[in-house]
Amino acid sequence: TVRIERLTDFGAFAKISDHVDGLIHISEVSHYHVKNVEEYLTVGEELKAKVIKVKGKKISLSLKALQPTPWENFLDNYKVGQKVMAKVVRKMQFGMLMEVEKEVVGLLSRYDYSWNPSENLAGMVEVGSELELEITSIDKKKKQFSLSKKHLEYNPWADLKLKTGEHVSATVLRTEEKGAIVKVEEVEGFLPISEISTERVNRVEDVLRVDDIITVEVMEFYPKDWKLTVSIKKIAEKKNRAEYESNLQENVSGNQSLADLFEQYKK
User: Fold this and answer.
1) Rounded to two decimals, what is the model's pTM?
2) What contacts 181, CB < 8 A, 6 or more positions away?
3) Which of 141, 145, 204, 220 is the most exposed place for a label (fewest CB within 10 A)?
4) Annotated domain spans of the chain
5) Do the Cβ atoms of 14 and 25 come closer than 8 Å?
6) CATH assignment of 72-152?
7) Are residues 22 and 14 in contact, defined by beta-carbon separation less than 8 angstroms?
8) Whose CA is closest to 74, among 49, 106, 97, 96?
9) How far is the C-alpha of 14 from the C-alpha of 60, rounded, in Å?
């Protein structure tokens, strides 16, 4: 045990015994960055210190050598899968650095912002903002850990099973210049203006209204990219084709070919 005798800009002098003093350099006060020794130590305070160097009559002491590091505290208090509140300390092209505990920083990759690939979380928050995240990995040797926001969110696309060509019910959510946004189960899809009708459509509003319930055909379905494109026109085209083929079958007897019909037509 030592007693703090005097504080300086570069550390503190501490009495080890009646005739022996030592220096606690500012870098040995704490594992955290220390700007002012006065914030950590007071004259007359008694505490435990470790002798880390002796050179002649000069004795160097350390307080932090007897304290767990911030990383060790992190490992004791946190585990993979745990929810944490973290502060944005830096935004980068590939992600954001998030501080979970003082000077304990992990990476929130841009791929873990959201299940929605078009959502840019970094553009929605500022340095200093706090987010609720989940710890997804901890590398003890490299002293690194990863965080995710999307793992705390429900991904409706993961449960949606659709096939190209399948007919599904959809609700019109809103109309746009190039088409309509429709809801299929719990996800949003796009109905291009060119796929609304077999006839030319100049304005989506002329054909569809918000809350209309329609039957559409799946044209494209890419759940990882959150992309769903649907069509009304393809259903109409297939229906027209089926009716045409049905009428054709009725007009053509079993012994007649199209060539025979054509010859009769010429007569």
Assistant:
1) 0.69
2) 172, 173, 174, 175, 188, 189, 190, 191
3) 141
4) 2-64, 72-152, 157-236
5) no
6) 2.40.50.140
7) yes
8) 106
9) 10
Q: Which of 213, 211, 205 is nearest to 177 (CA)?
A: 205
Condensed to tens digits (0 to 9), the pLDDT of residues 200-251 reads 999 999 999 999 999 999 999 999 899 999 999 999 998 888 777 777 666 6
Q: Which fold has domain 2-64?
A: OB fold (Dihydrolipoamide Acetyltransferase, E2P) (2.40.50)
Contacting residues for 211 by C-beta, under 8 A, at least 6 apart: 171, 172
Q: What is the 3-state secondary structure (H, E, C) of the chain?
A: CEEEEEEECCEEEEEEECCEEEEEEHHHCCCCCCCCHHHCCCCCCEECCEEEEEECCEEEEECHHHCCCHHHHHHHHCCCCCEEEEEEEEEECCEEEEEEECCEEEEEEHHHCCCCCCCCHHHCCCCCCEEEEEEEEEECCCCEEEEECHHHCCCHHHCCCCCCCCEEEEEEEEEECCEEEEEECCEEEEEEHHHCCCCCCCCHHHCCCCCCEEEEEEEEEEHHHCEEEEECHHHHHHHHHHHHHHHHHHHCCCCCCHHHHHHHHHC
pLDDT tens-digit map of 39-81? 999 999 999 999 999 999 899 999 999 999 999 999 999 999 9
Class of the CATH domain delimited by 157-236: mainly beta
Query: Which phi and psi (to 5°) does residue 194 adopt?
Result: -75, -10
